[in-house]
Design goal:
Helix content is 33%, strand content 19%. The chain is an alpha/beta fold and 335 residues long. The structure holds adenosine monophosphate (AMP) and magnesium ion. Magnesium ion binds next to loops.
Length: 335
């Protein structure tokens, strides 16, 4: 598939906005990860997102909007919790699931009667949304199941090989996505708000605005269809050591380092003499920013046949890092 880069200039953004309005696909940076966008009012354009990603058709998309007023144009009702959260936390890495207007194409909603909306804070995403003048449906700009791209190069590598000759993608290069994991998804369509997916905004920040968040009931997989599928996984099998740094260093000293790529906090990497290692830095936000690029880097590293990640911290955005690693891993080992 052809991927055509555009600069992050006024001309590049103008070209990308016109492409969206014409029903074409545009990959663009957000503060979370790079998105693969299409006109969210155009079912044929949105269908191409599913084609290019190889995404299951019942996994709904997030509509990206420039402000809360634009969100209300796709929402059938705008619940009080949506108003409070949007007032306090938009623009930012928070997605709200609200009742959908029937005009929102089924293909966007995955057949549900709700729709997910988010107002991103990344300045290029905001300029693009303003230029397009449309709600932009956008999942992460990778093939379904693989780690999400946080740089334009990662998008080009992820999508360039897709076997979809009739569809092209414009790619706005805006540098690395600063947060590095997807948005937090909260369902405000029913009586009590439910946290459907941990993400770039901490649970604590949301609970400060609307009080305690529920978790989806065990018998309600349809509440968050995307959580059913394998996700974020590198090609090489990944083992997650869900242990504290000291225990992980002990465990790793017993393992052969050859052919194994290591992704761990700086203090773990520095305590070991590991030939193929990527540091997750010193904090949950460092780790989120490096996570996907680290997995993709190790997955391309010559001579490796497996990867090991070390993480056991659910503080703040650490919870989202844990969630992505647990879902990416072929095996999880706990202390
Ligand atoms: P992605 O675009 O892959 O980051 O995933 C979007 C996430 O939002 C998935 O986990 C979806 O299940 C979730 N989502 C999108 N729309 C809805 C909706 N209408 N109801 C519940 N979850 C949704
Ligand atoms: Mg994704």
């Amino acid at each position: 598939m052809a991927v055509t880069r555009l600069p992050a200039s006024a001309a590049g953004i103008g070209r990308a906005g016109a492409a969206l309005a014409a029903g074409e696909l545009v990959a663009f940076p957000t503060e979370t990860v790079y998105g693969l966008g299409a006109d969210g009012t155009n079912p044929r354009a949105v269908a191409n997102i599913y084609l290019v990603k190889g995404r299951p058709p019942d996994n709904p998309l997030i509509l990206h909007v420039v402000d809360a007023a634009a969100a209300q144009e796709v929402a059938r009702v705008w619940p009080d919790d949506a108003r409070r959260l949007a007032d306090r936390l938009w623009p930012g890495p928070l997605t709200l699931v609200v009742p959908a207007r029937p005009t929102v194409p089924r293909v966007v909603r995955g057949g549900l009667d709700t729709v997910a909306v988010r107002c991103p804070s990344h300045p290029l995403a905001r300029r693009l949304l303003a230029a397009a003048g449309l709600p932009v449906a956008a999942p992460s700009a990778n093939r379904s199941g693989q780690p999400s791209p946080t740089t334009a190069d990662a998008v080009a590598r992820a999508l360039g090989g897709a076997d979809v000759p009739d569809v092209g993608v414009w790619l706005v290069d805006g540098g690395p996505s600063p947060i590095g994991v997807e948005s937090t998804v909260v369902d405000v369509s029913r009586a009590r708000p439910v946290l459907l997916r941990p993400g770039g905004l901490s649970r604590e920040a949301i609970e400060q605005v609307v009080g305690p968040l529920d978790s989806p009931g065990a018998g309600e997989p349809a509440r968050s269809p995307g959580m059913r599928y394998r996700h974020y996984a590198p090609d090489r099998p990944l083992v997650l050591l869900a242990m504290d740094p000291e225990a992980a260093v002990q465990a790793l000293r017993q393992r052969p380092a050859a052919q194994t790529g290591l992704l761990a906090e700086r203090r773990v990497v520095e305590a070991l003499d590991w030939p193929a290692a990527v540091s997750l830095g010193d904090s949950p936000s460092d780790a989120a920013a490096v996570l996907f690029e680290g997995l993709l880097t190790l997955d391309r590293w010559p001579g490796l046949d497996r990867l090991v990640a070390v993480w056991n911290n659910r503080e703040g955005v650490g919870w989202a890092v844990m969630n992505r690693l647990e879902r990416a891993a072929a095996e999880v080992m706990r202390a």
